[in-house]
UniProtKB/TrEMBL annotation:
The keyword Membrane applies. It is a single-pass type II membrane protein. Residues 529-538 have a biased composition (Polar residues). The keyword Signal does not apply. Its EC number is 2.4.1.41. This is polypeptide N-acetylgalactosaminyltransferase. The chain crosses the membrane at residues 12-32. It comes from Leptidea sinapis. It is found in: Golgi apparatus membrane. Belongs to the glycosyltransferase 2 family. GalNAc-T subfamily. It comes from the Eukaryota. GO terms for molecular function: carbohydrate binding; metal ion binding; polypeptide N-acetylgalactosaminyltransferase activity.
Length: 554
């Protein structure tokens, strides 16, 4: 009996001790659990965060203390984004709002203070001494910008706040989606690439910056090899590097980067940019409101000669000419009226420049990502612009978001197949798929495109059909009525004198009309196709035969 009492007493002690430790465990778990206070979405802002650094050669991890990010390796299983069949309604793609559990709380990022009198601080110009000009000019040829000036500037240089005052106080949602920033480069200078990365890190709210993905498009520079791999291990944000085996071009390299994105929004940047204070929140705020909105910052100018940061105008938007070249044009009064005269309100732009923009990850794939039949670079921005508008989306420039970009007079890179052929090929694919009968203008202005293979566009045309996209006429009438392309025309081509066989020409410098040999390239949307001709007496001549005047448009 005595032993039985001892056993009972011992059991009570064990049970009591276990209960005490259980209560202690519960208290600790409650204190540090995500499901406490504001709910399962809340994270402590000062928790230590494991930052995952992934590269093709394997995975590395580093401990970073005091960061606000809760973007640790929480989705290890996400390796590639999968394209799913889109849900298309009468007005285009249907995307539900983000679940609240996917949105993150954020706080504005403190301004970067000037570092004394270092070169380029506050976005000031860097002037090279005259005795070093020859060295500067020699280095200029490497990247087609002043590499010497760039190398003198800090990776973390300060910039002036170029936003409107109203932008600084504009309220944004407290919960926003995360973004992955994708940067593609080919033989990029070290200083411009690293400054792009650091400006992204320094001026982005950490909870919103899921990761940075950099894609090396077959670079040959030594500093972009092992040195870069080692450097990104030291960064305080998850940074992954992918490399193409062969030169693929911007379009396919971006697709490679996008395939590995983990953030809810993909933000594409060029490799020679500088993000400014408050650049990210306005973009994400537009997307969280409508996931089919594609947004661009105002693209400020970083001088290619002095690296001075120059504020760009907020009164221009994207358009295009008959050759399908992207151009900046003045914002029309009708768009200013739609915005109620508020220059901080998002600007609906017909096209985008294409180098810098943000798009919902799921929407990016459902609407067709990029046209993989396009080569290297060029035309992909117009293709996506037409596709977004015609298929029910919206394209905006957000004036409260500013990102600087080094604009160069010419590209330092070679284009496999030649620049002209690549540009003509890409633009012809745009005309074939999205422009309907207005594609005739492109071929009329670029007859050389008739000799460039367009490739198979059946898949892209099927995409347009599947998404129930609107016509190009709808685009011209509703989105870009200011376009140079007429809505209705009878003839497109030459006015021929039937007696002399000369055609009307306008002298470009003297603004006078004269006659000269005809190109014999004419197209018509009228019932009786042919060239528009006149006789020396001024009377219209009979239409020329179809064999003589028709232009074999694709």
């Amino acid at each position: 009996m005595f032993r039985s009492k001892i056993r009972i007493h011992t059991c009570r002690i064990i049970l009591l001790t276990s209960l005490v430790w259980l209560l202690v465990d519960v208290a600790i778990l409650t204190l540090y659990s995500d499901c406490f206070g504001d709910g399962c979405n809340k994270k402590t802002t000062n928790q230590n965060t494991i930052i995952e650094l992934e590269k093709l050669g394997g995975k590395k991890a580093a401990i970073a203390a005091g960061l606000q990010s809760d973007n640790a390796a929480d989705d290890e299983n996400v390796e590639e984004n999968i394209i799913v069949e889109p849900d298309v309604g009468e007005e285009g793609l249907n995307l539900p709002p983000y679940p609240k559990s996917k949105l993150k709380r954020w706080a504005p990022v403190p301004s970067i203070k000037p570092q004394g009198e270092l070169p380029g601080e506050m976005g000031k110009a860097v002037n090279i001494p005259i005795e070093q000009e020859k060295i500067m000019l020699d280095k200029f040829q490497e990247n087609q910008f002043n590499l010497m000036a760039s190398d003198m500037i800090s990776f973390n240089r300060s910039l002036t706040d170029v936003r409107f005052e109203k932008c600084k106080d504009k309220p944004y949602p407290k919960l926003l989606p995360t973004t992955s920033v994708v940067i593609v480069f080919h033989n990029e200078a070290w200083s411009t690439l690293i400054r792009t990365i650091w400006s992204t890190i320094n001026r982005s709210p950490r909870p919103l910056l899921k990761e940075i993905i950099i894609v090396d498009d077959a670079s040959e520079k030594e500093h972009l090899g092992k040195k870069l791999e080692e450097y990104i291990k030291t960064l305080p944000v998850s940074t992954r590097l992918f490399r193409t085996e062969n030169r693929s071009g911007l379009i396919r390299a971006r697709l490679l980067g996008a395939k590995h994105v983990k953030g809810d929004v993909i933000t594409f940047l060029d490799a020679h940019c500088e993000c400014t204070e408050g650049w990210l929140e306005p973009l994400l705020a537009r997307i969280v409101e409508d996931r089919t909105t594609v947004v661009c910052p105002i693209i400020d100018v970083i001088s290619d000669t002095t690296f001075e940061y120059i504020q760009a105008s907020d009164m221009t938007w994207g358009g295009f000419n008959w050759k399908l070249n992207f151009r900046w044009y003045r914002v029309p009064e009708r768009e200013m009226a739609r915005r109620g005269g508020d220059r901080t309100a998002p600007l609906r732009t017909p096209t985008m420049a294409g180098g810098l923009f943000a798009i919902d990850r799921e929407y990016f794939y459902k609407i067709g990502s990029y046209d993989e039949g396009m080569d290297i670079w060029g035309g992909e921005n117009l293709e996506m612009s037409f596709r977004v508008w015609q298929c029910g989306g919206r394209l905006e420039i957000v004036p409260c978001s500013h990102v600087g970009h080094v604009f160069r007079d010419k590209s330092p890179y070679s284009f496999p197949g030649g620049v002209q052929n690549v540009v003509l090929h890409n633009a012809a694919r745009v005309a074939e798929v999205w422009m309907d009968e207005w594609g005739e203008f492109y071929y009329a202005m670029n007859p050389g495109a008739l000799n460039v293979p367009v490739g198979d566009v059946s898949e892209r045309k099927a995409l347009r059909e599947r998404l129930k996209c609107k016509s190009f006429r709808w685009y011209l009438e509703n989105i870009y009525p200011e376009s140079q392309m007429p809505l209705d025309y009878y003839y497109l081509g030459e006015i021929r004198n039937a007696e002399t066989s000369n055609c009307v020409r306008v002298h470009q410098t003297q603004a006078v009309m004269c006659g000269s040999p005809c190109y014999e390239r004419v197209t018509s949307r009228a019932a009786n196709s042919g060239s528009c001709r006149w006789t020396s007496s001024g009377r219209p001549a009979e239409p020329a035969s179809e064999n003589h005047t028709s232009l074999p448009y694709r």
